[in-house]
Amino acid sequence: MSFDRGEVREVVAAVRLGNPRALGRVISWIENASPALPMISKELAPDTGRAHIIGLTGAPGVGKSTTVTCLVRGLRARGERVGVLAVDPSSPFSGGALLGDRVRMQEHALDREVYIRSMATRGHLGGLAVATPQALRAFDAAGFDTVIVETVGVGQSELEVAEMVDTVLVLLAPGMGDGIQAAKAGILEIGDIFTVNKSDREGAQALVRELRTMIALANRGPQDWKPPIVTTVAHENRGIAELLEVIDRFQASQAETGRAGARRIARARREVENIALAKVRAEFQLDGEARLEDLARAVSRGELDPYAAADRVVIGL
Amino acid sequence: MSFDRGEVREVVAAVRLGNPRALGRVISWIENASPALPMISKELAPDTGRAHIIGLTGAPGVGKSTTVTCLVRGLRARGERVGVLAVDPSSPFSGGALLGDRVRMQEHALDREVYIRSMATRGHLGGLAVATPQALRAFDAAGFDTVIVETVGVGQSELEVAEMVDTVLVLLAPGMGDGIQAAKAGILEIGDIFTVNKSDREGAQALVRELRTMIALANRGPQDWKPPIVTTVAHENRGIAELLEVIDRFQASQAETGRAGARRIARARREVENIALAKVRAEFQLDGEARLEDLARAVSRGELDPYAAADRVVIGL
């Protein structure tokens, strides 16, 4: 549980100066749940809160990587520094599964103002919830103007990531299964902006129509913002300028209504809660290992119920 | 937070006698996180530990519901009482999304020895982890010999459900996207038995071959059991007898090697841990609401880092 405080201080200082190698080291520490995390987080804090964080989500095959490449290109053209964090919550066992996709972003490989990084989350639910916001803080403190978080797959973890960002961009494409799938994942409720990519393909207009109806029917709660649907053909860079414009418009509207700030506070709150829970969980495991095992045996034999067992765990803390 | 203890006692007693309506009420209580849960769990405990729990997972469209119907038919033919629990972890907002599928199971609608139930998990990560095992305990105490848990979608939550069962059955079908998808979801590592359904379609043999290679390459750890691949055409009931035979063979092997028991203890342990964590989380929210909000504001302004904030939450418990 020990680490070199001097080394950490030096690396974090380099992150705050925007050094990409230092940022890479910090993200590896985060990924591996280094005991230095509280110190890192403390030293990064004063420089956080500036980056605009975009979450980009969608089923495999809709063109997420290509769209990210296009967005990076557009943001770079404005002079922004851009970070990309690809999290793969569905792949606890095969860390780095996304690296193949990253190859497609070679266009930006030599650009010092763009930093692209994959992060596996080791199959730990607490892992995704704790690691992703910390990695985003590191990007933020390193001075990136925009950070794009790309998630893979459909499911709970995508909804989790959506709660960690300023703007949720949902990608769909025709011929990837019907809109019902989108509804199942709950993304109709959480998307701020929808993009129908591969819009030159058959079925694109039908998908836009279906999506429009489903968004209108979705249980989104009272909102000033009606999520627009942008059509793109990312591999030809078509529709990207419009998409960036819609993203700007959304951010302006969020700032105006005060929602941007409220969302950041809610996000910080979940972050604090998740770290606190992870701490408590670690305490169960460190102090109560043998006792937890005994309780589990009793529960598996039907001699004790799990609630009574949980009471003994919590009291024992 | 109060409830009618006499009523709960009566309903739980009826569950233990196998009454399906009582079971339905208990599962609704579980789904809605009733304050009666600790009492229910305590009263059910002595009758638990008997059912064989099968987890069935696979992407939308591979034929999960049809396969479940066939398995139920086969198990009924042996005289078993069979329960089906369909959990939809990816749909926090649209509870009951699976009910449409359930209609397809009409075949068993009038059979008193079969009980089919959907359960939504309200978008709460703790929800799925806590609610599903409790619902399985209720089925178990109600005397069902086999309970099939069907999950929808691909992602972390499916891996979670896999940890709650005795046998993990992974369904695939040709033409549903490539095997790489399967690898991403981590299911290659967790499947005990693989089924290629719709095996009369083009590409089925190629999928079986690809799957065989990928299972061999997957990081499964040392095991005595090599997961077999069964081919089925569920809508014609083909291959189901063989599938049931493989399931029996797996259970016999698990019992022989002692893995069945070890798995149940590990399961009970996770269950206890998750309930304990949910308790702690509830305490954060009840006692520390205003303070948590203040801490979150400070974090969102960069005045405090989230680890320092989490320390104050945990100390304040």
Structure description:
Two copies of one chain form a homodimer. Chain A is α/β, with parallel strands linked by helices and 317 residues long. Chain A has helices at 5-16, 20-31, 37-44, 64-77, 99-102, 125-141, 156-162, 179-184, 187-190, 204-217, 240-257, 259-287, 289-300, 306-315, and strands at residues 52-57, 82-88, 114-120, 146-151, 167-172, 193-196, 229-231. The first copy, chain A, folds into two domains: 48-256, 3-Layer(aba) Sandwich (Rossmann fold), CATH 3.40.50.300; 272-315, no CATH class. In chain A, α1 crosses α2 and α1 (5-16) runs parallel beside α3. Chain A is globular. Chains A and B meet through α3, α6, α7, α8 and α12 of A and α3, α6, α7, α8 and α12 of B.
How would you sum up this structure in a few lines?
Two copies of one chain form a homodimer. Chain A has 317 residues and is α/β, with parallel strands linked by helices.
List the helices and strands and how they pair.
The structure is a homodimer of 317-residue chains.
Chain A: H1 5-16, H2 20-31, H3 37-44, E1 52-57, H4 64-77, E2 82-88, H5 99-102, E3 114-120, H6 125-141, E4 146-151, H7 156-162, E5 167-172, H8 179-184, H9 187-190, E6 193-196, H10 204-217, E7 229-231, H11 240-257, H12 259-287, H13 289-300, H14 306-315
Parallel strand pairs in A: 1-4, 1-5, 2-3, 2-4, 5-6, 6-7
Helix pairs in contact in A: 1-2, 1-3, 2-6, 6-12
Characteristic terms for this protein:
317 residues, alpha/beta, Rossmann fold, 7-stranded parallel beta sheet, globular
Which two chains form the greatest contact, residue counts included?
A: A-B, 80 and 80 residues
Give me the oligomer status: homodimer
What is the radius of gyration of chain A?
21 Å
CATH topology of the largest domain in chain A: Rossmann fold
The name of the CATH superfamily of the largest domain in chain A reads P-loop containing nucleotide triphosphate hydrolases
Report the uncertain regions of chain A: 90-104
Beta-strand residue fraction of chain A: 5-15%
- In DSSP terms (H or I, runs of 4 or more residues), the helix count of chain A works out at 14
Structural class of chain A: alpha/beta
Give the N-terminus to C-terminus distance of chain A in angstroms. 20 Å
What share of residues of chain A is helical? Answer: 40-55%
How many strands, which pairing sense, and closed or not: the largest β-sheet of chain A?
A: 7 strands, parallel
H/E element string of chain A? HHHEHEHEHEHEHHEHEHHHH
What sort of overall outline of chain A do the alpha carbons produce when their principal axes are compared? globular
CATH architecture label name of the largest domain in chain A: 3-Layer(aba) Sandwich
Domain count of chain A: 2
CATH class identity of the largest domain in chain A: Alpha Beta
Side by side, the strands of the main sheet of chain A go: 3-2-4-1-5-6-7
What is the residue-mean pLDDT of chain A, rounded to a whole number? 83
Q: Report the strand count of chain A.
A: 7
